[in-house]
Structures are given as structure tokens and as C-alpha cells.
Amino acid sequence: MQTITKFLVLLLLVVISTHVQAQDSIKISNNQLKIEALIKQKSKVEADEKELLKAEVEAINKQLESGEISEEQAQQLKQESAQKRALNIENRLAIIDNQIALLERNNMLSSSSEENEHKISIQIGDGKKGITINSEKKPIKYDIRTSNDFLFAIGFNNTLIDNGSLDDSPYKFGGSGFVELGWNWKTRLLKNSDFIRVKYGFSFQWNKLNPKSDQYFVQDGDVTTLQDFPTDLRKSEFRVTNLVFPVYFEFGPLKKIERESHIRYINSNKFKIGLGAYGGFRLGTQQKLKFKEDGDNVKQKTRKDFNTSNLVYGLGAYVGFGDTSLYVKYDLNPLFKNQLVDQNNISLGLRFDID
What we know:
The chain has helices at 2-65, 71-106, and strands at 118-124, 129-135, 146-161, 177-190, 193-209, 215-220, 223-228, 233-251, 255-258, 263-266, 271-293, 296-303, 311-321, 324-331, 343-354. It is an alpha+beta fold.
């Protein structure tokens, strides 16, 4: 054991030594690559600042068109922006020149500089080869019309039976529930208004039903029915898992955050309402039973289709404030296909759209 430990320690020292030597051998070539990248970056500085100036001028023109400022104020703001961008170009070029001088003098690049480029180094083999990838910072985009958020929803689940009501449901109201997890993108439809947006993405839905009165599902060919279990059931749970792709139209104001270089819209304690639809397919169906047999606790899981519909499609709506909404969804497709009486899944709960 001691021999193995000594061997591993020796091997580690050899690797570290080789790595240090390799770093020393490629320092000059790496520094040359950094200098070349900085020289290229100088040519982008002026273009970046001009792009930012263009965005600021567009914002000033919008204020002028809407009557928020006068013509004289607009000209003054444009002149101030132009002066600021000119100074930015001068200062940024001076910083890059200093970085190049530092590299040439000390063979290193100051890591404390805020204008320093991002660096990714990849070493291959014994360190005799090296790849350096430099990615320069991009200017801030003035307006982002598409954002994304995480979706989490939870609540009650049941079915509406053809020519019946929820009172006729054979499923427990307290035990039956649903969970939905997904990711959504949200795009403002109007360039200068935030009132209407289209929301789209994907979601995983888990719709669970707990039959009443010690009943469970039995599949007999193309027919699936609820039947009485031979003994008392401690638990009878039926779950369908779906992958759907929702599309909603969302209405309501957003909070506008305006800065000198950019504007952003966030959903902060603002009223909203969403109306839409979803479509997708079933991923799986499972029935779980818990009961006692000969004095032993038995847990039984059955995974098969139970004649549940393969294609899933329905309507949804939500209304709320900020990230939280009251949420309802209804499957237009029947839960079971080719049955004498159709039943459609319906869910009601809370929805959280977390930016």
C-alpha cells in the first residue's frame, strides 16, 4: 500500500512539473496571441461605441416624437451622448494600449482590468500544444423583445365525463392532482408596446387520478374500465405523463426599466391574463396499487398504455399578478380512446412563471 502511495505521489509531482515547464515554454507564444487579439479589439472599440450611440439617438428620437422632450432638449442630449462616446473611445483605446505595453514588458496581462477579454485555454497531451480562444465583450443590446422563464404549476386534477359533471366523477377530489414543469419563451408582439406577448415553450405534465371506493383500472383489449378490487385498497393511483408544447397570448402591462444604454421589461406585480392552447403526446401511463395480502403489505406498479390517448391537446388560461397566477387547463382529447363514454382531463391550480 505504501509503495502504491509513493508511486502516485511521484506521478503527481511529475505531472505538475511537466505542466509548469509546458506553461513556461508557451508563455511567449501565448502572449503574442494576446497582443494580436488586443490589436484586433482596438478596431472594434469605435464600432461598438458608434452602435451604442446609435441606440441612444434612437431612444432620444422616440422621446421627441412622443412629445416627452423638446427639439432643443433632444439636440442637447444627442450632443452629450456624442461627447460621452468619443471620450469612451479615447479611454478604452488607452486601456488596450496599456495592456499591450504591460504584456510586452512583463509577459503577463493584468487580470484586474475591467476591459480584459475572456480567455479559455485548452491544453492537449503533455502540454506541448496549446489552444487559446479569446471572446471579446459584446455591447449591451438596447431592447430585448424575447425573454424566458421557468414554469411550475400544481393543483387539483379530475375528469369531466360526457353528459355529466364533476359531481359524477369516480375520482377523489382531494387525492387527485397535477404537476407541470416547463420552460417558456416570451416575445413582445409590438415593438413599442408591452401589452401583448406570445408565450411558447415545452412542459412536462403529470396528471394523477385516485379512484374512489377501492376501484382500479382494468384493461381488457381495447376497453378500459374501473372495477372493484378484491380486497381493501390502501391506495389506488392512476398517472399519465405528457410532453406538450403550449402557446399562449398574454395580456397586461409590464414594468419598464429604462437606463441610458438599454431598456428592459419585467413582470413585477403587474396584472396579467393568458389564453392559449397546447398539443403534444403521451410519454407514459402507470397505475400504482397498495394493499394487504396474507398479512403482508404489497405495492404493485403497472406500466402500460391502458388505452389512454397517445396525442394530447387542449386549452388553457391563467390570470394573476407577477409570477403567480390561477391556472386552468382542459384536455380536448379524451383520456381513454375508443370508450363508450368519453372523459376529459381538467386541472385547476396555481401557476408560477419564474423569470
